[in-house]
Specification:
Elements lengths: L2 H15 L12 H11 L4 H14 L3 H5 L3 H8 L5 H19 L7 H5 L6 H12 L8 H10 L9 H11 L5 H14 L18 H8 L1
Length: 215
């Protein structure tokens, strides 16, 4: 099976069976999504969704968050991983968002990455989810799944290498959805320790399953 055939089969299956994938983070506006994605680093979406209602009630806008220091944010996110660091990032992010963007979340990746707490992955999530940009956020799920099923080679050893391989082989208009397809597939089917291969719809195109058959 060629790489082109593998991409075509997998993407076709997802498009037919998961036509409208969405982020599992709860948010009502761009500011809330940005905060939620920053909090989600090395933390589950479920935990973030439990935490953010009280946080957003206290800080409903970027300006409200920009007016406080990290120690006022910390109590609302203390159950999140790395709460001290994330509280500092949120306070600094909100100030810069207000000072440089009038509280409006920017669409460009470079501008997003200038915000404290926003790396390439977070910027790509915002670009894909809010602005339908052809950018691929590579988290642990996407990284694992792409290499396991053969969309990226084992030699792609960094998130950036996997991101570049995926964006080079997926049509731009599909990339925002493909981002969700791979994340959700990694969470619920192609899990890290015990992938549910018998239940996997893309098994016919999976490189790992093909390798098992051949061996």
């Amino acid at each position: 099976m060629t790489t082109k055939e593998r991409y075509a089969g997998i993407l076709k299956w997802f498009a037919e069976n998961v036509p409208a994938p969405e982020s599992e983070l709860h948010y009502r506006d761009p500011y809330q999504l940005l905060v939620a994605v920053i909090l989600s680093a090395q933390c589950t979406d479920r935990r973030v969704n439990i935490t953010t209602p009280a946080l957003f009630e206290r800080f409903p806008t970027p300006r409200a968050m920009s007016e406080v220091e990290a120690d006022e944010i910390y109590p609302y996110i203390k159950s999140i991983s790395y709460p001290n660091n994330k509280a500092r990032n949120l306070a600094a992010m909100a100030r810069r968002l207000v000072e440089e963007h009038d509280g409006v979340v920017p669409a460009e990746r470079d501008e997003l990455m200038r915000l404290p707490g926003v790396g390439r992955k977070t910027a790509n999530v915002i670009g894909a989810v809010l602005f339908d940009r052809p950018v691929m956020a590579v988290d642990t799920h996407v990284f694992r799944v792409a290499r396991r099923i053969g969309l990226a080679p084992e030699s792609a050893r960094t998130p950036l290498a996997v991101e570049l391989r995926l964006t080079a082989n997926i049509a731009p208009e599909l990339i925002p959805r493909a981002h969700h397809w791979l994340i959700l597939h990694g969470r619920y089917v192609c899990t890290a320790r015990k992938p549910h291969c018998p239940e996997c719809g893309i098994a016919p195109w999976c490189a790992a399953i093909q390798l098992k058959i051949e061996n």
